[in-house]
């Protein structure tokens, strides 16, 4: 491959792909059995971090940034005056293999603008994955974008070679989509999602009977929503998210604070701040739903349509539901422990294990590394010493905020530091 | 024998050597002991130095014993904390083992126990270093067709990462060389071996010199550096977070940082 040409293309097509925030490379269990290259059995590794603090795990590029559509929120849109480029299938294969061999990446995340038609584009994405698997014996991670409107046959083939497939719904509400991407309709996004979901279920049940049934998208499906481009509420976002988790068994929903890229009057103007704190709160809510046993309507409902920016959603919930507290750490079950503000799941499991040996007191909790500065208002343990003042929610909130200013100003990251 | 006398167990610095020393402690019911590695030899005026000769059989007996008393996680925790090379780590390990042998239930998850907690914390930082190495190793293709990486980990983690790299890079020869400790892992397409290199005079591990590395090596490094720049979103810049994830001491061997 000609170095200069490839270099130029890589710059353009990596730049255009960076707005997709998904970086996960875990959950695949594709092992290296035939002494080939790579394996994707583990947790997924962040090989580096960008200067904005995001994990670099996959070579994330577009196959091309030519596109026949004109979605207002997208840099690749047809009417945008930018440099265009297109990779050849073999170029992407070579880049992936050579980056992988040097331990730069866990694999490839390939997306694309839509050129000619959905199927024509999807076909090429599939060709890259197929080549990597069959010709290069590559067992690293492959994430392909499902192109809205692609045929069932192509989606089926894609799932045979890819670990993960994703369709970005981008705009959380139907109305927003109509406004910002009038040429697109929701059904086009949903159709490939349904196909992949059904294939995953079918392959899984066949594998139970015939072990040699090939794996189908073993790391599942994900999607992404843009936050703050269409005036939606947090409730609308998270209820949509919840719907997609439940309905399509999605592995992940990503939330991407809108980065102003256009002077289009339908959108926040260039220079507007990226809503990073809001994005972080949405991720926290997402975690509460997936790992902490919260139902979405407990956190967001018609009385409470937007998340507090000054406190995290778990603390917010606790302050609105003081009747559940204090919780006894020596008696409460996992789900109630998980609801104590300041307590992460790791601490919850440590408590569950350690309390089998003895009743826990403050000293024990402290030694185990449980962060007590906020938890102490919400729990009792084996000690006569506990918060006795009958504080109202606003009083408690202001005490906690005063004591944790440093925490509040802490560096924000969408993927990590969720409840640290 | 004076009961209160301190015994200094001088061993070769290996894990087996340490386990042999532990065997002696149990065998002779030694009460007050301290451990000494070759690099930390100091003449002690008080106390009685015992030279430990590493004995694989004895080491094995101790290890089997401890494995029957702890979970797989617990024994891994012991081994990986040993690799922290922290001064005094042997005493903590010995304490842990003695408690484990005494207790009727596995003590691994007793996080309100100070020794268990301490060891799990040390093991955690070793584990973090292991993950960092799995992430931050950067191979460069040499003229001999070997993918070569140099590292200087905070702890002696090469033994812990060997398996990961072997299963991942099964079809290429590779070397991961710890410059700080002067040894490396070499995978020859069959097995991983411990090796020592006589590095050429004036060899600068941070430079990609054509004398040693292929012509395309520099091109791929450039492409990777470009990628690293292009994939960054400037309006979200957060250098503090960046440095928190990739502490500066690791930059030296990260291709994307060599500009
Ligand atoms: S179809 Fe995709 S790439 Fe094309 S403008 Fe819309 S969002 Fe962008």
From TrEMBL, chain A:
An annotated Gene Ontology molecular function: catalytic activity
Keyword Metal-binding annotated: yes
Family matches, as Gene3D superfamilies: Aldolase class I
Keyword Iron-sulfur in record: yes
Pfam families: Radical_SAM (PF04055)
Record-annotated Elp3/MiaA/NifB-like radical SAM core domain positions: 57-284
Cofactor: [4Fe-4S] cluster
UniProt keywords, alphabetically: Iron, Iron-sulfur, Metal-binding, S-adenosyl-L-methionine
Name by which UniProt lists this protein: Putative DNA modification/repair radical SAM protein
Organism: Gelidibacter sediminis
UniProtKB/TrEMBL annotation, chain B:
Domain DUF4130: 90-256
Domain of life where this protein originates: Bacteria
InterPro entries membership: DNA_repair_put, DUF4130
Any single Pfam family the record assigns to this protein: DUF4130
Protein name: Putative DNA metabolism protein
Species, as recorded: Gelidibacter sediminis
Lineage: Bacteria, Pseudomonadati, Bacteroidota, Flavobacteriia, Flavobacteriales
């Amino acid at each position: 491959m000609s170095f200069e040409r490839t270099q130029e293309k890589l710059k353009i097509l990596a730049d255009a792909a960076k707005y997709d925030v998904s970086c996960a490379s875990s959950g695949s269990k594709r092992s290296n059995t035939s002494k080939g290259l790579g394996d994707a059995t583990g947790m997924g590794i962040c090989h580096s971090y960008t200067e904005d603090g995001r994990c670099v795990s996959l070579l994330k590029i577009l196959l091309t940034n030519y596109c026949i559509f004109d979605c207002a929120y997208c840099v690749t849109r047809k009417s945008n005056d930018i440099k265009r480029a297109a990779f050849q299938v073999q170029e992407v294969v070579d880049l992936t293999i050579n980056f992988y061999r040097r331990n730069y990446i866990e694999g490839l995340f390939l997306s694309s603008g839509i050129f000619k038609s959905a199927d024509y584009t999807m076909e090429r994405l599939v060709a890259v994955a197929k080549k990597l698997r069959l010709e290069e014996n590559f067992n690293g991670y492959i994430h392909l974008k499902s192109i809205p409107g692609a045929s069932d046959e192509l989606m089926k083939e894609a799932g045979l070679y890819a670990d993960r497939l994703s369709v970005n719904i981008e705009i959380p509400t139907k109305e927003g989509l109509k406004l910002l991407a009038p040429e697109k309709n929701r059904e086009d996004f949903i159709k490939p999602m349904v196909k992949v979901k059904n294939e995953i279920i079918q392959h899984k049940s066949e594998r139970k009977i015939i072990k040699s049934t090939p794996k189908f998208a073993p790391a599942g499906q994900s999607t992404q929503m843009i936050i703050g481009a269409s005036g939606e509420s947090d409730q609308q976002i998270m209820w949509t998210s919840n719907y997609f988790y439940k309905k399509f068994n999605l592995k992940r929903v990503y939330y991407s604070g809108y980065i102003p890229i256009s002077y289009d009057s339908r959108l926040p103007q260039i220079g507007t701040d990226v809503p990073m704190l809001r994005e972080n709160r949405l991720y926290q809510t997402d975690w509460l739903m997936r790992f902490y046993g919260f139902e979405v309507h407990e956190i967001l409902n018609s009385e409470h349509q937007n998340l507090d920016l000054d406190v995290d959603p778990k603390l917010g919930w606790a302050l609105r539901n003081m009747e559940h507290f204090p919780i006894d750490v020596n008696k409460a079950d996992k789900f109630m422990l998980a609801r104590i503000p300041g307590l992460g799941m790791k601490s919850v499991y440590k408590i569950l294990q350690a309390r089998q040996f003895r009743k826990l007191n403050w000293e024990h909790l402290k030694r185990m590394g449980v962060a007590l500065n906020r938890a102490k208002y919400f729990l009792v343990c084996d000690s006569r010493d506990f918060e006795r003042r009958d504080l109202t929610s606003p009083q408690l909130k202001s005490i906690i905020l005063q004591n944790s200013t440093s925490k509040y100003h802490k560096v924000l990251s969408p993927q990590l530091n969720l409840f640290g | 024998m004076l009961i209160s006398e301190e015994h200094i167990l001088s061993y070769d610095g290996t894990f087996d050597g340490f386990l042999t020393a532990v065997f002696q402690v149990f065998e002779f019911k030694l009460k007050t002991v301290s451990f000494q590695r070759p690099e930390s030899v100091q003449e002690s005026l008080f106390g009685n130095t015992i030279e430990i000769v590493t004995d694989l059989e004895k080491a094995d007996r101790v290890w089997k014993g401890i494995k029957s008393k702890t979970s797989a996680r617990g024994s891994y925790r012991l081994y990986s904390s040993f690799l922290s090379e922290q001064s005094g780590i042997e005493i903590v390990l010995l304490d842990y083992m003695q408690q484990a042998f005494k207790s009727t239930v596995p003590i691994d998850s007793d996080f309100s126990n100070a020794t268990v907690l301490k060891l799990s914390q040390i093991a955690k930082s070793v584990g973090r270093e292991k993950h960092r190495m799995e992430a931050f190793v950067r191979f460069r293709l040499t003229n001999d067709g070997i993918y070569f990486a140099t590292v200087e980990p905070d702890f002696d983690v090469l033994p812990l990462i060997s398996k990961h790299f072997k299963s991942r890079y099964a079809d290429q020869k590779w070397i991961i060389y710890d410059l700080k400790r002067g040894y490396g892992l070499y995978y020859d397409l069959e097995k991983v071996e411990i090796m020592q290199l006589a590095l050429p005079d004036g060899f600068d591990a941070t430079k990609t010199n054509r004398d040693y590395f292929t012509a395309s090596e520099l091109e791929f490094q450039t492409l990777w550096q470009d990628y690293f720049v292009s994939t960054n979103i400037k309006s979200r810049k957060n250098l503090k977070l960046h440095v928190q994830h990739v502490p500066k001491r690791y930059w030296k061997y990260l291709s994307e940082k060599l500009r």
